[in-house]
Amino acid sequence: MMPDLILPSPAKLNLFLHIVGRRPDGYHELQTLFQFLDYGDELGFTLTPERPGVRLAEPLAGVPDTDNLVIRAAHALMGQVSAPLTGVTIHVRKRLPMGGGLGGGSSNAATTLLGLNHLWQLGLNLDELADLGLSLGADVPVFVRGHAAFGEGVGEKLTEAHPPEDWFVILKPACNINTGKIFSEQGLTRNTPRIKIAPAFEGDASRYRNDCEDVVRKLYPEVNQSLDWLSQFGPARLTGTGACIFGRFPTESAARIIWESKPSGVTGFVAKGVNISPLHKKLTELE
Ligand SMILES: C[C@](O)(CO)[C@H](O)COP(=O)(O)OP(=O)(O)OC[C@H]1O[C@@H](n2ccc(N)nc2=O)[C@H](O)[C@@H]1O
Ligand SMILES: Nc1ncnc2c1ncn2[C@@H]1O[C@H](COP(=O)(O)OP(=O)(O)OP(=O)(O)O)[C@@H](O)[C@H]1O
Q1: What the protein does (predicted)?
Q2: Rounded to whole angstroms, how far apart are CA atoms 197 and 39?
Q3: Rounded to the nearest whole angstrom, what is the distance from the C-alpha of residue 41 to the centroid of ligand 1?
Q4: Model's pTM, two decimal places?
């Protein structure tokens, strides 16, 4: 059966990621530049008037349904309204590697918040949805707002940014990295000086870096090798706490040539960086 609504759930890149301090609760204060990719997961929403509640069409391998950010986002939204809501089955077409630093789970949560707000005609605004999203994860608000942004705090204080919409080769080295483990590493740089941004920040990411990269290179030889390989062709960097890395190219054909020559055993994809989220483009078309 055709879903009532199909929405993209794009990936993000951290074009740079600085750790500028640590909060009393142990969370790290960041300065980061988020940009979306025109590549990601897809969520299908099917209304089930005969069956109340929200459920997944099929479970995500290794993630109990109650922990799935799609279900957690739906429940967070349902907690905002007292009126009875039509039941929904949500189908997640997963393309993004989990725990890869591409924000797949956070993006799924944001797509669920915006998708159900639309389907149920709840009328919550982006500020309200971003606040709800922050309770699910630090990366959710940028996906809810849908514009490339300079992020501060844990990534929730957002200022719109306009980095160049380059092409990227994204590689997923064959290892999984736990975000919590990287943030608890002793050798992590935690005192990068804060940068000040001008109002129309474009984000010349090449001037900045990912502070997790040195630690991740030391702990994960697969990431180290992939970064060394990709750096031969242009600037290459880690996104989030990894494991994915990206190389930036001015054209699609330049990116594809490098992609075709990647070492065996490394997976990934080619995608364009976009400053307006594909989710928001689709929702605007529906209005
Ligand atoms: C690294 C980024 O992907 C950059 O966009 C995000 O900041 C990650 O944010 P997130 O997905 O909310 O991170 P989680 O997977 O919930 O974090 C796992 C653990 O990493 C540590 N953590 C995470 C984010 C942060 N700013 N400081 C931290 O110290 C915390 O111990 C946390 O319990
Ligand atoms: N719908 C979902 N999609 C992916 N992961 C999910 C989902 N729901 C819960 N999770 C859990 O969240 C964890 C992190 O997944 P995610 O894909 O967001 O990581 P990430 O790309 O490293 O994100 P970030 O850059 O925010 O750290 C997964 O390992 C998984 O256990």
Answers
A1: Catalyzes the phosphorylation of the position 2 hydroxy group of 4-diphosphocytidyl-2C-methyl-D-erythritol.
A2: 28
A3: 21
A4: 0.96
